[in-house]
Amino acid sequence: MKIPKDRVRLNVGGRIFETTSTTLANAGRNSFFGALFSENWSLKQPNSDSFSNCEFFIDRNPDCFSVLLDLLRTGDLNIPTNVPERNLYREASFYGLLDHVRSAKWGQFDGNRLRHSRSVTGRAPGDGTAIRAGPDGGCCVAHGSVVHVYDWIMEEHPPLNLDYQRVNDVAWVDSENIIISACERLGRGDGGMGLFSKSTGELRYKFQVCHENQVKSFTAGALSTSSDYKIFSSCKGRSNEYGIGVWDQVTGKQIDFFYESPGWSLGDADKLQWLNGSNCLLVATLFPRKDNCYISMLDFRDKKMVWSWSDFGAPITVDEKRVRDTIAMEDSNAICVVNEYEDLGFMDLRMNGGSVKWSSRSRMMKGKLSDEPCYPKLALHGGQLFSSMDDCISVFCGPDWVLTSRLRRDYGGSICDFSIGGDRLFALHSEENVFDVWETPPPPIS
């Protein structure tokens, strides 16, 4: 009986495995197994008269290989108790299968199917200030003057700092580069903004602000990036450098600056959001950073503020509703805002300076606010709207943004920030130095 030409015999660490080239081809051309095959995925056989004697020896862990081979066969990841996950990830990295493992561990992001995966306790004292999800399933946490970086298996990389000045915001440029914005240190030129390597913690370059052809020190605030390799940051200087700076992501050079106009607020912005569809930047300065809220859309092509709203001059009522966070929703031409009661409000982007239409149906809280409440945050992902309040995160769906589910943990206290990316949701707690990781389980086997 002839042995099929598709059959492959592997000796991994002394244990024999038999599989097919079709199965190994599931690893992809850039994997370890891609080197065993020709361009049309025909097996590259050693010079031998008998194919039955052809055996490939791989000096690696056979227990981990068994798990990874089963993953290539079925698409499912089943890790026995005798296989430490750290060892499995190390072996998956060797074979070029980390992406396969990652996609098998959790499914495509769905806020209504999220399950708590783990909680990670940090080492730094005090409270964290911001958390940002990375594109590859990792995250970074701003903690005072230091940013702690975690990869997708939640192993910590070297911490980042910018002259040990207080961090105001942090953003991922890509899976390998992180931007930090920090406070200026008077008289020293420290602080500002820098680009770091996620893996090594190396400062690759610092960004500069030029005003009247002179380099100025500045405090960098809220951050955002665009798909055409631009970096945006709110800026405050000691002269007239109040506004939004723009830098080239590749070179680090400043390419534009939108100066703050009298009676408005840009340099103190709490939040920036780049909108790919309209090629505009949402800039929001919110209470309590300022006594009033200022939300605007900037078009850098014409150096114009194309949409704006403020509660300046609005009458103060007993049930005052201060905007605590905002997010632009391009698909519906709307701006969504949230107040301290987690009421959602909406404004039409096609109407400049219109009023907020509040909707109390979203209210999740019962009773009074906690003694030390965290201000609510908003996020939009995959057509779902997320809002944090105290120790839970609410999920809203549909054209009328109906409340569909709620995420909550009993440990850590109020949620001061959360972020979505890499098919994960990360929630940072204020009362304990801990953050939660939420994932969507893989779809059931049909």
Outline:
Helix content is 8%, strand content 41%. It has 446 residues and is mostly beta strands.
Key terms for this structure?
41% strand; Potassium Channel Kv1.1, Chain A; 446 residues; mainly beta; 2 domains; 4 helices; BTB domain-containing protein; single chain; 8% helix; Methylamine Dehydrogenase, Chain H; 4-stranded antiparallel beta sheet
Structure overview:
With 446 residues, this protein is mostly beta strands. The chain has four helices and 32 strands. The chain folds into two domains: 99 residues, Potassium Channel Kv1.1, Chain A, CATH 3.30.710.10; 325 residues, 7 Propeller (Methylamine Dehydrogenase, Chain H), CATH 2.130.10. The strands form nine sheets. Strands 4-32-31-30 form a four-stranded antiparallel β-sheet, with no helix packed on it. A four-stranded antiparallel β-sheet has the order 8-9-10-11, with no helix packed on it. Strands 14-15-16-17 form a four-stranded antiparallel β-sheet, with no helix packed on it. The longest helix has 13 residues. It is globular and about 80 Å long. About 2% of the residues have low confidence.
